């Protein structure tokens, strides 16, 4: 798929049209690179700095002038994190929560997004409006009744309580719907229908393959969102059975506020998403592009 | 004939009912764990209800709302929310457009840059706020130290209204600009270059082309991003909560100078346990969010091709 | 095909549910697992080991959160009867709020608590006694007051460093501020007399006979002249540049210890453990402890409660009783500095003669048992903890230059009376 995305190698024709073309998709000059490097540095700096602190002794965090290069204490600090809290449990919990939520959101969003974009049914627009509308409502709004419900089910403190409300998202459905709208020509589906294809077949053979790039993007963002979710887990879980984020906040609000420890934990907690990101980032970026190109 | 009949029937069943099957899982789960709590919130908001003493709950009609509208701290929180909404959403969209435009050029190692800009988005709010709170520290923060190199005095970022809003906005903008940039970039690449070629022949420079061709054609994405950003930024909670750790964290500063509406909801609901009052805040905040998102929608909708 | 895909999704869901389904209550090997929810340092780590060694069938795990998070979560968990630890610590500032719903807790009087009553200071016992006579908590420590100070900083500023002479500097809080002004004249750049207005004010409030409430649970802080005088005194100190403007129990305050940004800090007994942890071993011997201006007073101190929703109530009650017994409180005093709430120990030579090496061998045993004997118990109302937080924010407004003393005081009084 990425091969399709590669633009043809730049040729250097002459004449006014060629000049115009060059202007339109300008080749980056030194200023562009300088700006991009600055953006990159700005993006990476806080994460880098957190890594620097986690590789230093606790004194480094409030030294003037600030310490900006990594030290040799990373592993000692990591060991301290695992000694201080059950960080394995936190990592494991976050993994289970994010994995399950991602799988479920992608599946259900693709199904519903396909139906909303490409199938006609009574009440479609109304239901879609409902989904768009619910996106505007802060999830914090329902947190009090949700907490009461979880307590009623006996799920308070258990990670099911974090998983279940995250199984579907309005954003996912909306996102996939937008994608399907543009990615699949109606004629293709019509042709399929003429051949007597059941809509499920259309979904499976036409929509799903076409949705892969978008599903991958949705999957990545859902995973990250689930991994980084803070407020609801903080309310419903106890420090005994935490996710990475609630473990972080426990560490940060614990009695000795040792920030080296907190930032080391933050660094460890970022590694799994960073790994997913580095492995699939290229496909994700490609997926976004291909969706737009086809549209 | 019978075979055709059966196929037709199946086909009709398929077109008529199958779509509901596809959207059913979403609505089932959302109904139970999304919609029901939302509606129940409205019910709770009509009660005088404290978590600690749930038995004493009683129905008070709109008393919570009346109290809310007369509550100066609520209006303070709404003001902060709107201020932070402006300070986060506008720079975020503009910065994203700028980054997308940079990335839209022929750049070597473009994957590196594209991935680089969404790096902030994969980090956790909790971790990032902890990091930024340290960077914005009064006595030993890196930012004050850097400003000190230019002769600026030490700023107590948490203390001032403007300074605290700026600090929080920096966190949000840092986190989300790259995400929106990629959304914009995707569509920029789809703009046929013939449009730019024609414009160039007409003598339009790069800046004019950007504002007259690129931005208008990105309108759907800008609307989308504005709405997403608005709904996110109207409910900022983790940033103001973790920016100022301590027993009074939920008040958002000594004089509530950076307490957002979501944080006020949290303060009332989860430090004072006033579930009824807190639910009323939630309902009003939701309405306000819809209004502001609508405002954003209409503003961005006015973007036109000239 | 759709059922297949769905089945796959469902299988993953089921797997997740199974994976996460770690039931609590019994640990592996048939042991009873007891959880204990704490905030700050109770000095219990060694005691847990000792108890588990003596009770092989019990496994104790503790979870520690910050002061405000802990009480906030406890309230939510109690209300929903879920997510509680088997034993939950409750601070003095919150005990009145929780004893208003005594049915959420085990009544220790029905579990033999009545017989243990004489262990504790009478006011400590009454502090956790509900209006209908149910005992919801066993007292841990009391927050007898002292002042911790940096010997080296005082000396460098031309003030005495010896603890008796230092104590002589400040018989009253007025003298304390006067000494501060003298200190500040010669203090190096960035070093202030005290850590922050809120912590000084808390100590002063802890010494007044009547606090934020009267005995009928009415908030009377607006009319309380003692507290207002204390407020004005601290505001004057802040305006004279004596404050580092760091709020206690925050990360920047912790850094302040490490960086030596202030010369004195009000020291309820439990504060000593914090100082030791935060200033670190390199500051050993630099800190010392002496008596507080204005006589005895109390700030903080806690109780152990057993929520009724727990699965192992009897074993939890047994552990709570053991942890708060005089013998254990004595150990905690020596290891973490927490002042016992059991008067028997105030005469115990092992306690009275105890000196703390970290604090330059300060005779903290004598110092704090004296403080405890002088202590006038002050009635704490239902939301004393919240009011303490509010008055801290009010003082911060003055420190940050957002309001003057009068404006901030008026706003505080209006806030808490809402």
From TrEMBL, chain A:
Residues 91-280 form the ABC transmembrane type-1 domain. SUPFAM superfamilies: MetI-like. The keyword Ubl conjugation does not apply. It is found in: Cell membrane. The keyword Cell membrane applies. The chain crosses the membrane at residues 31-49, 87-114, 126-147, 153-175, 202-227, 259-280. It holds the Pfam family BPD_transp_1. Keywords: Cell membrane, Membrane, Transmembrane, Transmembrane helix, Transport. It is a multi-pass membrane protein. It comes from the Bacteria. PANTHER family: ABC TRANSPORTER PERMEASE PROTEIN MG189-RELATED, ABC TRANSPORTER PERMEASE PROTEIN MG189-RELATED-RELATED. Belongs to the binding-protein-dependent transport system permease family. This is Sugar ABC transporter permease. The lineage of its organism: Bacteria, Bacillati, Actinomycetota, Actinomycetes, Pseudonocardiales.
Automatic annotation (TrEMBL), chain B:
Residues 78-296 form the ABC transmembrane type-1 domain. The keyword Transmembrane applies. Gene3D superfamilies: MetI-like (1.10.3720.10). Keywords: Cell membrane, Membrane, Transmembrane, Transmembrane helix, Transport. The chain crosses the membrane at residues 20-43, 82-100, 112-137, 157-176, 217-238, 275-299. It holds the Pfam family BPD_transp_1. It is a multi-pass membrane protein. Coiled coil: none annotated. It is found in: Cell membrane. CDD domains: TM_PBP2. It comes from the Bacteria. Belongs to the binding-protein-dependent transport system permease family. This is Sugar ABC transporter permease. The lineage of its organism: Bacteria, Bacillati, Actinomycetota, Actinomycetes, Pseudonocardiales.
UniProtKB/TrEMBL annotation, chain C:
Keywords: Signal. It comes from the Bacteria. Residues 1-27 form the signal peptide. InterPro entries: Bact_solute-bd_prot1, SBP. PANTHER family: ARABINOSE-BINDING PROTEIN-RELATED (PTHR43649), SUGAR BINDING SECRETED PROTEIN (PTHR43649:SF32). This is ABC transporter substrate-binding protein. The lineage of its organism: Bacteria, Bacillati, Actinomycetota, Actinomycetes, Pseudonocardiales. The gene is cebE.
